[in-house]
Design goal:
Length: 799
């Protein structure tokens, strides 16, 4: 659905130029699919045609003498509707048009057309981008000020194309969106006046409803002696701005009210209604009607129709009939405003293959009380723009929908949303949404939905409304927790499942081993001695004498089992509980073990079949795991203290988050692989899931992506083996170099020329600024500073 910024401004104070409206609506659950800004080029002004003459050398062209208020110009024009005395939009010399489809520019220049010089162009609505089609030049009202720019005369507009969810039919109008904006911005809605002074009564038998279930309410009003004519410019522009084609003042008013208030209307030519009566009934099987689209439709008893005494004259809620609509000769109009059962309109629309603006709203459910207001609004506009005399409104109401108050517990709202919002703030939000708030206590209140919010049926709906208006961006990001069956930790379960799913997504297979082991297997992990093992009180066999203190022993058994069956290419993991004890208490915790060995790729990948898993593959898996948890402040370093004897010393590393060890990993020692008959190195990681769960997930901060290019510089150095890559990265970051976006290593090299115990490292420094392009001088200064600091403080030998 399209809404116009200028149109919305009539009903609510927008508070800005609309630049932040897209974000506000989107965060409130109203998706903005497109934003269309309509403004004409700066060189277009309001001019007047003083004289029109035939072109001497072309039958279909005219030569117009045009006044801009300052000078008179000769303009060659091919439109058939140009004439002397008209006010028109004139594109002066130098005006630049841009083709919306191709993006190419079109400049207005002095040019000879069939021998006559033309000093500009009289524009059509299509050329100005105000309409998709036009049959001639755009003719402005006679009171249009001469010489002013067209943008000053007709204010530039912004049109928003919105995607409205099926549960919010109240937003299918400008008033509905205005209400939403008022609630979000703290403003008030200025509703249009709908006062009508009736001059006569309407016969009470004018309307008969034969099926009150499908049509619980139908209103009719007769307006006599109307003058059907072209709509005024303001009304036509309102319709054009959202993509509707003006027809005549009566039809345009019904369309205008549809878009303004969300209530579909239909105007009948009273003289074409047999007996001047309306009967709302089900169609008879095989009954036919020719609709306004010129097509004939065969109906059945499930279709609701509007009839006169003899025949159907409209498909209820969908489309009017061809032989009862308003035309130029119409003098008396019967205005329909009704409520039809949504499910019936939906099924009839689908069955007949017709979708209209009216059916789109009726099948979602219109405001039951807006039926009267929309009729009054349209009647007032008809009397203003087409003249005539109106009768009283005939309101035939068979039944009314029941509005049930919804109980709202303030604490329940706070728990559901996870925010510390006060009782008064909650009640104030309901008031902003024009909901009734009654029976307010310190703990709860009753919320009475308005007639246009029939979707509010339970407390969860109220919580959603509070969240939308309070601001979804204000709700803190926290782990979900719940209690089920005593003391089950839902947040821990969710995190474990996330880790499991991420490892599977990285290409690893999950394995599951028994939670018990024999003494030898239980002591395989060098971190645990016999004094920390938990013995089973009544083991089934000696192989299940102890609870496992680590997942490592089971993983080694799984590797051996696979290799003995000629499946030596492994990337596997296990997540499970481990158990150990000490002199004070016994302990149960969750651990994750990852193992990788053999070829990375199947043998059929001939060019990569020799590539083996290595230390860096395992490191990448662990870093990806933390990245999936949005944990960025991690550090990998060589494990020098408290090093478990499970890993080869030169490859043993630890993964730290905020200085706390989360995982230890590396190549498994020959002590543990002895007897497995493994031909490739086996790499493994032990992840402490308890510590991983305890890491606070930081709130995601979004920043704008720079539109300006990056600049890179390289720095290469020789460093002692004792200086780790992570130390260098941390050091460069600590220098606070402005506009330094990232630091990446791209080369590591060792040979005898460099020296024993030394290595050559090379890094790429990427610089980028948010608001401008960096100069070489700025980047070189920063690059030199990094080099100087590396040399002076880390004693690097620069290359």
């Amino acid at each position: 659905m399209k809404v116009s910024y200028n149109w919305l401004s009539q009903y609510v104070d927008m508070g800005s130029d609309g630049s932040d409206l897209v974000e506000k609506l989107t965060m409130a659950g109203v998706e903005v699919e497109d934003v269309i800004r309509t403004s004409v080029p700066a060189g277009v002004i309001v001019a007047e045609i003083l004289e029109r003459n035939k072109h001497p050398n072309a039958d279909k062209l005219s030569v117009c003498r045009v006044s801009t208020g300052k000078e008179e110009l000769l303009i060659v024009c091919g439109a058939p509707n140009c004439d002397a005395g008209q006010k028109v939009p004139l594109a002066t010399i130098g005006t630049v048009f841009i083709d919306k489809e191709t993006g190419k520019e079109f400049n207005i220049k002095k040019a000879k057309l069939r021998g006559v010089e033309s000093s500009g162009m009289i524009c059509s609505e299509k050329e100005l981008g105000l309409s998709e089609q036009s049959s001639g030049i755009m003719v402005l009202p006679k009171d249009a000020p001469l010489g002013i720019t067209f943008n000053d005369y007709m204010k530039a507009d912004t049109v928003y194309d919105l995607e409205i969810t099926p549960n919010r039919p109240d937003l299918l109008s400008h008033i509905g969106i205005a209400r939403e904006i008022a609630a979000l911005c703290g403003g008030k809605v200025k509703y249009p006046e709908t006062r009508v002074s009736p001059r006569a009564k309407i016969p009470p038998d004018t309307v008969e409803i034969m099926d009150g279930e499908l049509c619980p309410r139908y209103t009719a009003r007769i307006i006599r002696n109307v003058n059907v004519a072209e709509s005024p410019e303001w009304l036509k522009q309102r319709l054009k701005s959202v993509g509707l084609r003006p027809i005549n003042n009566i039809v345009d008013i019904t369309n205008f009210v549809l878009l303004e208030l969300g209530q579909p209307l239909h105007a009948f030519d009273l003289s074409l209604l047999e007996g001047q009566k309306i009967i709302v009934r089900r169609a008879v099987d095989d009954e036919k009607i020719i609709a306004l689209d010129g097509r004939e439709y065969k109906l059945n008893k499930n279709n609701l129709v509007i009839c006169d005494l003899r025949k159907p004259v409209a498909l209820a809620g969908i489309m009017g009939g061809e032989h009862s609509g308003v035309v130029e000769t119409t003098k008396d109009v019967l205005l329909e405003s009704a409520y039809f059962k949504p499910s019936n309109i939906r099924s009839s629309s689908k069955e007949l293959g017709i979708s209209t603006d009216s059916s789109y709203r009726f099948e979602r459910g219109v405001d039951f009380e807006m039926v009267l207001k929309a009729s009054d609004r349209a009647s007032a506009l008809i009397l203003e723009l087409a003249g005539g005399e109106a009768t009283e409104m005939l309101d035939v109401c068979v039944s009314r929908p029941e509005i049930k108050p919804v109980s709202c517990r303030f604490e329940k709202i706070r728990r559901t949303l996870g925010v510390g919002i006060t009782n008064n703030e909650i009640a104030e939000i309901f008031t902003k949404l024009e909901l009734g708030v009654t029976e307010v206590t310190s703990d709860s209140c009753k919320v009475v939905p308005t007639s246009f919010r029939s979707d509010l049926r339970e407390e969860a709906d109220l919580a959603e409304e509070v969240a939308r208006i309070y601001g979804l961006d204000k709700i803190p990001l926290v782990s979900v927790s719940a209690v089920a069956g005593g003391s089950f930790k839902m947040d821990a379960y969710v995190t474990v499942e996330e880790v499991r799913n991420q490892l599977v997504a990285l290409g690893l297979d999950e394995v599951m081993n028994y939670s018990y082991a024999d003494e030898k297997a239980a002591l395989a992990d060098s971190r645990y001695g016999k004094d920390r093992l938990l013995a089973m009180s009544n083991p089934i066999s000696h192989e299940s004498a102890f609870l496992r203190p680590s997942l490592l022993s089971g993983m080694l058994r799984t590797v051996e089992h696979n290799i003995s069956r000629k499946n030596a290419d492994l990337a596997i993991f296990e997540i499970g509980n481990v158990y150990c004890g000490n002199s004070k208490n016994d302990e149960e915790k969750i651990e994750c073990c990852i193992a990788m060995s053999g070829r990375k790729h199947p043998e059929r990948f001939s060019h990569e079949k020799k590539a083996l898993y290595d230390f860096y593959d395992l490191k990448g898996v662990l870093e990806s795991l933390l990245e999936s948890r949005k944990i960025g402040n991690c550090e990998v370093r060589r494990c020098t203290e408290n090093q478990p004897g499970n890993f080869v010393e030169s490859t043993c590393a630890e993964l730290l988050v905020d200085g706390q060890r989360i995982a230890v990993f590396g190549e498994i020692t020959g002590r543990l692989t002895k007897g497995i008959r493994i031909q490739c190195p086996l790499f493994a990681a032990l992840v402490d899931m308890e510590k991983l769960l305890a890491v606070t997930v930081p709130k995601i901060q979004y920043s704008q992506i720079s539109l300006f290019p990056s600049v890179t510089r390289d720095v290469a150095m020789v460093m002692p083996d004792s200086i780790e890559h992570a130390q260098i990265i941390k050091f460069i970051r600590s220098l606070g170099i402005p506009n330094l976006e990232k630091v990446e290593i791209f080369d590591e090299f060792r040979d005898e020329n460099i020296g024993v115990g030394k290595k050559s490292l090379a890094y790429t420094l990427t610089f980028r600024c948010q608001d401008r392009t960096l100069t070489d001088a700025e980047v070189n200064a920063s690059h030199d500073k990094v080099r100087e600091k590396l040399k002076s403080e880390l004693h690097a030998e620069l290359r």
